[in-house]
Design a protein that fits this description.
Elements (H helix, E strand, L loop, with lengths): L1 E6 L2 E8 L10 E8 L3 H7 L15 E2 L4 E8 L10 E4 L2 E2 L5 H4 L12 E3 L3 E2 L6 E4 L4 E3 L11 H18 L15 E5 L3 H12 L3 E6 L5 H10 L2 E4 L5 H7 L2 E6 L4 H8 L2 E9 L7
Parallel strand pairs: 8-9, 12-13, 12-15, 13-14, 15-16
Antiparallel strand pairs: 1-2, 1-4, 3-5, 3-10, 5-6, 6-11, 7-8
The protein binds zinc ion (ZN) (2 copies).
Length: 282
């Protein structure tokens, strides 16, 4: 079968022919339908993601950690899963720390976790993947065209969850128990900025998304559909501040220290800054 192969830490990417995976006992055989390419993939291909590594003893790895597929075959006892559309979970626990044992490999304490297509485990940019059903999430048919976004969305959900857990130290919801009196600013109109704006909106926040340039037509289109306001921050945040008052949540997706610094003085008492981007060491 064909697969997209990388050899971290060396910068490289190629399409290779590799043997099809074999169905193991208690496993399922998945045909991959779509995979996404995100900044992490680009960093691996360019050899600049420090965590990227093949499994010990191997010199190549299948790329891809955001995928959706359909179960084509299943081992005995799992036949019910055949025909189901599934998302594959990328991070797998170390099997030793309590967080991993409780199913929260995102909080692994040993660093011994593996991550498909990133760290010591083959990813999903291949025609077929055989996996353990513990690591799949079924996708309702009506969400098929957007479900490939579930992996990045889960990271953003976790960020908002962390914001809300932190703010629970005080009374931070509005008088009617919602967040509609709270103003959230999302910096950056890339895919992550768009996704988190939708999410904040669904939590009830008043959301403004900003960028230092005008919107591209496709961005304009998405924002008008979800009802999120845009502000061009090329001249700073003064004008927006005059209009909306101080910001309660600042959600940065740019990882640019100068951008973050310029917004800090407009933040409200008890507000919270969420950093989602990764700044690379100079
Ligand atoms: Zn990603
Ligand atoms: Zn762990």
């Amino acid at each position: 079968m064909k697969a997209v192969l990388v050899s971290p830490p060396r910068p490289d990417v190629r399409i290779g022919d590799i043997p099809e995976p074999r169905l193991f006992d208690r496993g399922i055989y998945i045909r991959i339908l779509w995979t996404e390419i995100c900044e992490t993939d680009r960093e691996i291909v360019n050899g600049v993601l420090p965590i990227a590594s093949t499994s010990p003893g191997k010199d190549e790895m299948i790329l891809g950690h955001e995928a959706i597929g359909v179960v084509e075959r299943a081992s005995k006892g799992l036949e019910d899963l055949v025909g189901r559309y599934v998302i594959l979970v990328s991070r797998r626990g170390c099997g030793r720390c309590l967080n991993c044992l409780a199913g929260r490999a995102d909080y692994c304490e040993t660093g011994g976790f593996v991550e498909a297509g990133i760290k010591e485990l083959d990813g999903f940019m291949a025609e077929y993947v055989v996996d353990d059903p513990r690591y799949i999430v079924e996708v309702p048919r009506e969400l098929l065209d957007v479900a490939v976004l579930a992996q990045p969305l889960s990271d953003l959900e976790k960020s908002i969850e962390s914001v809300l857990i932190t703010q629970r130290r005080m009374i931070w919801s509005c008088e009617d128990g919602t967040y509609r009196c709270r103003k959230a600013i999302v910096i950056g109109t890339g895919p992550i900025g768009m996704l988190v704006s939708m999410l904040l909106k669904s939590y009830g926040f008043r959301v403004t998304i900003v960028n230092r340039r005008d919107l591209y037509p496709h961005e304009k289109n998405v924002l008008s559909k979800i009802g999120v306001k845009f502000y061009n921050s090329s001249n700073g945040y003064e004008e927006l501040y005059k209009e909306t008052g101080p910001f309660d949540v600042v959600f940065d997706t740019t990882a640019k220290p100068s951008v973050i610094k310029s917004v800090l003085r407009f933040m409200n008492y008890n507000s919270i800054l969420a950093l989602f981007g990764f700044a690379r060491a100079p």
